[in-house]
Amino acid sequence: MDKPGEKIIPLSSLTQGRVLDTLQRPIHDLRISVMDRCNFRCPYCMPRETFHESYRFLKSSERLDFDELLRLARVFVRAGVKKIRITGGEPLLRPNLADFIGDLNSISGIEDIALTTNGVLLAKYASELKAAGLNRITVSLDTLDPEVFAKMSGGFAGVPEVLDGIEHARRAGLAPIKVNTVVQRGVNEHTVMDLLAHFRGTGVIVRFIEYMDVGTRNHWNPALVMPSRELAARIHARWPIEPAGRNYTGEVAERHVYSDGAGEVGFISSVSQPFCGDCSRARISSDGSLYTCLFATQGTDLRGPLRAGATDDELYELIRGVWTGRRDRYSELRASMRGAADLHKVEMNYIGG
Ligand SMILES: C[S@@+](CC[C@H](N)C(=O)[O-])C[C@H]1O[C@@H](n2cnc3c(N)ncnc32)[C@H](O)[C@@H]1O
Ligand code: SF4
After folding, report:
1. Which of 110, 172, 250, 257 lies 20 to 30 Å (CA to CA) from residue 234?
2. Ligand 2 nearest atom to the CA of residue 349, by list position
3. Ligand 1 pocket test target in 94, 125, 140 with most atoms within 8 Å of CB
4. According to the model, what pLDDT value does residue 337 have?
5. What is the structure's pLDDT at 349?
6. pLDDT score at 270
7. CA 352–ligand 1 middle distance (angstroms)
8. Order of strands, edge to edge, in the sheet holding 281-284?
């Protein structure tokens, strides 16, 4: 669990006896995309013109089933994973997700289970997710303005449903709730203060994410990136904020607190201030490939070996081999790699955020 004020653990003590990559980074977090489909069409992630009605999503037999994912989770724990985040696509579209979370929760060695969702189905599922052992939830919400929301989510559902989902999560005891907000220059930047005003003092932590060049289909335009520093300066002018320490090594958000005690705001600055140096995240895509970077061009198939009868030891060796050979630090190299890497990056709905 996130514990404000917790000390940063030196990398050396995290790495002792652990599976390390070529840059001495341990494997600590696993993100599992349980569903490639989504009930939104955010243009920066799954633009409508590509993910249209006849787009070929995975068949359910092509997705890893929960027994396969549980087996993999146990093997990842053996390699050092302690935290699991469930994502997608929209993870709450996957039937019986709470049962899966309950089973994950019974795996010894998993210390934290979190979920990222667009929040629309949260009112329905919040209490059963909590009862199953979900520790934390992140809800994506880019704006409170109905028109801007429609534009940034593709026109499905509305702000009231997402706010209702957040309220149900709060009542279910899934605190602290985090809200992920992608900020695009000229699109929703003018609505940021209203969003903050709504959540200030409620315990909900808003985290602003720089618009990233994930996948190949979101027509990424660097001119739309709103650098966190600029945004922080604007917020500071309205409500003074000050930097707070990281909760744990490898935390992606740079934490700030309001000087008047109204809570916390975070900035995830993958474009302007890349944080590859202590990235300890592995990702399993909905079709069962292992990726070691959000911006990877290639994954390693785990579904094939799983279904061909690989033993746990064989799966462990496969995963260990991938991790020990890992050298990716795309965000740090972004400027020099653009063009070449653009062609084949994995899509966000397959591997989640
Ligand atoms: C891919 S979504 C999956 C989970 C769920 N559907 C949701 O929206 O929360 C995970 C996170 O990635 C973020 N995201 C998607 N595309 C992005 C992009 N191009 N740049 C920055 N963040 C992005 C979303 O805003 C969301 O917070
Ligand atoms: S960001 Fe989340 S809600 Fe939006 S399209 Fe991507 S997966 Fe769906």
Report:
1. 250
2. 7
3. 140
4. 64
5. 73
6. 85
7. 7
8. 241-243, 254-258, 264-268, 205-210, 178-183, 136-140, 112-117, 83-88, 29-35, 281-284, 289-291, 300-301
The alpha carbon torsion through 182, 186, 188, 194 (nearest 10 deg) reads: 120
Task: Using the structure block, give the residue that is written with the tokens 């053996």.
Answer: 78
pTM of the model: 0.92
CA distance 322 to 324: 6
Token pair in block for residue 11: 């990398």
How far does residue 15's CA lie from ligand 2's centre (Å)?
34
Q: Ligand 2 atom closest to Cα of 46?
A: 5
- Residue 153: CB within 6 Å of ligand 1? no
286 lines ligand 1 (CB under 6 A): no
Low-confidence ranges of the chain (pLDDT < 50): 1-7, 340-341
